[in-house]
Amino acid sequence: MLPGSAAMAQSQPAATPEVVVKGAPPKKEAKPEPKPEAKATETGVPVPSVTVAGERPTNRIDRQVYDVKSDVGSTNGTAADALNNVPSVAVDPDGTVTLRGSSNVQILVDGKPSAMMQGDNRGATLNAMAADDIESVEVINNPGAQFGNEGGGGPILNLVMRRNRKPGGFATINANGGKDGRYNSAVSGSYNEGAWGYQGGINVRHDGRNSTGSTVRDRINPVTGAAEHSTQDSTSKGLNDSVGLNGTVSYNLGAQDTLTASANYTARGNDQKSSEHYATANGAATISDYLRTTQREGDSKSYSWGARWDHKGDAPGESLKTDLRVSSTDNDSDTNYSNAYTVRPFNAPSDRSRLSNDTSTRIVDLTGDYERNIAGGSAKLGYKVANTKSSFDTQYVDINPATLSETVNPSRTNRFNLDETTIALYGSYQMRLNDRWGALAGLRAEHTGMDIEQITSGIAARNSYINYIPSFFATYKVSETANMRFSYAHRIRRPMANDLNPYVVYRDEFNVSSGNPMLKPAKTGSFEVGYETRFGTLETNLRAYYRDESDTIVERSTFISPTVLLTTRENGGTSHSSGLEFTVSGKLTPSLTLNTSGNLARSELTSRDLTGADVTRNASSLSGRARLNYQLDSATQLQAMLQMQGKTLTGQGYREPNRTLNLSMRHALTPQLNLVMNVTDVLDKNKMATVIDTPLLKESTIRRFDGRVFYVGLSYRIGGAASSAERGEQQFQGPRPGQGPGGPPRGDGPGPGF
Q1: Contact 213/231 with Cβ under 8 angstroms?
Q2: Distance CA 312, CA 327 (A)
Q3: Is residue 27, in this structure, part of any structural domain at all?
Q4: Full residue range of the structural domain in which residue 54 is found
Q5: How far is 574 from 104, CA to CA, in rounded Å?
Q6: What mean pLDDT value characterizes the chain?
Q7: Alpha-carbon distance 276 to 295, whole Å?
Q8: Close Cβ partners of 655 (under 8 Å, ≥ 6 residues apart)
């Protein structure tokens, strides 16, 4: 986990929208009053925020919203740090994201898919993106009809990026140094005058996580019952550089139209040095013992640009929004291997070899939304046309140690392309049923076409299907201080490009993987009910959920040689998960603020083991986190964050629990200048431990990462008034229960503000 500990405060629901009485003449709209800084919704369009002792994002009927901009450690943390403190979200050191124990999570940026958040790019992007660039994180456990199924089709984490639209100029400068030469720095600013608005920034980072690993494996002979024992011990080192630039320009084209253009660019290194010691024994006889050293050099480049037109119509609640986004990533790497044999195994790999990888993804996403008040509620119609192109080019060569000549190894060389096009239409209707009930219902029709081309094998295939995806949300006002929420959503989980590629990819000499071009989308039905209320100064939120999935995409491992384990994917049966999630936040004393959350979960997964038999596994786990903020004095704020991740099921085993403790401090040297310090993983407990437990395979793997990484830095603000967080003041935390059940939206996208 990278430095920084994002302080999360669940926000309050928006104030009840105005009720439109059927048959009554529409009211003349008053000129809007000046508002605090706007927030970007899932459509990327700014909407005013509700303010309670500082700017806060607002909960909405179909999502929970968590604030990150007032975090003590946001000036030197990453997006992974910010997500790691959102209730029921976990990000491991490799950047793998889970929500309520499931890795089937989409990550959107301002409500749109991005190539930077697809596949293997996601982890590197989250570990390079500055937390200070994020305004809030929206958790959408049951996505409504307006959301597509790209990137997995499961729950959504939407990163709402910072937007400053206050008149005048504003800038911040952050500089931080850390353990073992780590550093990061960022400059961001904005200027707004008249019809024009400008915003941009640049950040640099030198960071990473060194690791050690150990794997113990026993392969059971199905005939004799004898075990073949193998071990793998590894060390990996590599701190890499990254740089990011972003910019946005907006122009108010009259009173009813706004044009916006945005662009960003990210480049990061991918260098790493590692060594692995492999040993295999059959009974008392050692049949393999060697050391492999690895040196990887590579880089990754990502860019995106977008253009948006927002039009406000003359009719009540009428708006038209058109948004075009283009994003692309390209990853190149060259990895050199050298093997030193003590006991040379049968069919041993070459003493020297090299692997070249070139992967790229490009997404073009065009959406349009029309919204208008009809019959006492608000109707919304929209379309989406998206194209995703993915390319994988892998070349493996054996090197003659005497002549240094290279020979292509055809069994490890692979080229694969995937072209996926999605066309979707959706409609939703939101209204207040009475003084206590409000509802939002939607339906999405989605056509998907995929062209699969395995160039190496000369195999081409095409697949297409249509899905109809309903969703429903409701709120009930129990009292002035309590509110209930209900939701249902049907989703599909499409296989990703790596899931479909049938070619065998060698991760190391003991482990290979391949995809399955015959995979079908998994189908999910998800239910949720929530109750939020207030007890004195504490805001509480309790949510019960149940998720049922068929045609679940799971991993299945089989041996393709006495020592090499192949991991592939298949539609492996069914999975069920249920649980009870809670959040409690507020002031315990005038100086001490608590923000805590937990998730008691029960999961069940049916998959096939090495014998081909269906096996059902169950697991119960308790995950949680607690953040304590203490105002030592008017200038100094202390923060402690404890995170605990429970047991998680995998296709043939489970991942063991994990916990970390982070400490942060912010001290105001002047009204503009702050000193920030962070220590991550104070207990030095950060690890990834996985277990495979089947009749024919027993395996235990543990990876440990750098602990107790220390960062200290300065944050300087130019222009504007310091925020309450920067002055060390505590902001209101938690939802405001008992808000009205809602009515017609205020033009901020489907489903706001109930």
Answers
A1: no
A2: 27
A3: no
A4: 9-17+37-718
A5: 14
A6: 79
A7: 12
A8: 647, 648, 688, 689, 690, 691
What residues form DSSP beta bridges with 540?
A: 533, 584
Q: Is the pLDDT of residue 6 over 70?
A: no
Place of tokens 């298949």: 570
Most confident by average pLDDT, 77-91, 318-332, 342-356: 318-332
> Two tokens at 56?
């806060």
The SS3 call for residue 179 is helix
Q: How many domains does the chain have?
A: 1
Residue 56 has pLDDT above 70, yes or no: no
CB 349 within 8 A of CB 299: no
**What distance in Å separates the CA atoms of residue 298 and residue 702, rounded to the nearest whole number?**
26
pLDDT at 508: 65
The yes-or-no verdict on residue 274 having pLDDT over 80 is yes
The answer for residues whose C-beta is within 8 angstroms of residue 403's C-beta and 6 or more apart is none
Backbone phi, psi, residue 410, to 5°: -65, -25
* Residue pointed to by tokens 């953040």: 627
Domain of residue 285, CATH code = 2.40.170.20
pLDDT band at 693 (very low <50, low <70, confident <90, very high): confident
Residue 185 domain-assigned (yes or no): yes
Based on C-alpha coordinates, what's the Rg of the chain? 26
Residue 698 domain-assigned (yes or no): yes
Query: What are the tens digits of pLDDT across the range 465-483?
Result: 888 889 999 999 999 889 9
Lowest mean pLDDT among 152-161, 321-330, 395-404: 152-161
pLDDT interval class at 273 (50, 70, 90):
very high
Q: Where are the beta strands (DSSP E) in 514-609?
A: 522-535, 538-550, 553-559, 565-571, 574-587, 592-608
Rounded to whole angstroms, the Cα distance separating 615 from 573 reads 10
**Contact criterion met (CB below 8 Å) for 270 and 218:** no
Report how far residue 555's alpha carbon sits from residue 393's, in angstroms, rounded to the nearest whole number: 23
Q: For residue 293, what are the contacts with CB-CB under 8 A and spacing of at least 6? A: 273, 274, 275, 337, 338, 340
- The larger pLDDT score, comparing residue 732 to residue 198, is at 198
Maximum Cα–Cα distance across the chain? 90
Q: Which two tokens stand for residue 468?
A: 């109809």
The pLDDT assigned to 164 comes to 67
- How does DSSP classify residue 457? T
Residues 95-132: tens digit of each pLDDT: 678 787 677 788 888 877 777 777 666 776 777 777 77
Higher-confidence position of 61 and 612: 61
The rounded distance, in Å, linking the Cα atoms of 40 and 306 is 14
237-246 in b/e burial notation, b at 16+ Cβ within 10 A? bbbbbbebeb
748 domain residue, yes or no: no
Angle at 665 between CA 635 and CA 671, to 5 degrees: 30
A 10 A CB-CB count for 669 gives: 12
Look at residue 69 in the predicted model and tell me its pLDDT. 67
Number of CB atoms found within 10 A of residue 68's CB? 28
Q: Terminal CA-to-CA distance of the chain, rounded, Å? A: 35
The residues, any chain, with a CB within 8 Å of residue 484's CB and separated by 6 or more, are: 475, 476, 478, 529, 530, 531, 532
Token couple for 424: 């979707």
Query: Is beta strand 511-513 parallel, antiparallel or unpaired with respect to 565-571?
Result: parallel
Length of the chain: 754
Cα torsion at 20, 21, 24, 29 (round to 10°)? -20
* Residue recorded with tokens 């990210």: 266
> Is 0.70 topped by the overall pTM?
yes
pLDDT-derived band of residue 44, with 50, 70 and 90 as boundaries? very low
Mapped onto helix, strand or coil, the DSSP state of residue 743 is coil
Neighbours of 475 (CB within 10 A): 27
Residue 371: what residue type? E
Least confident stretch, 28-32, 164-168, 251-255, 343-347 = 28-32
The pLDDT of residue 290 is 92
Pairing verdict, β 636-645 and 574-587: unpaired
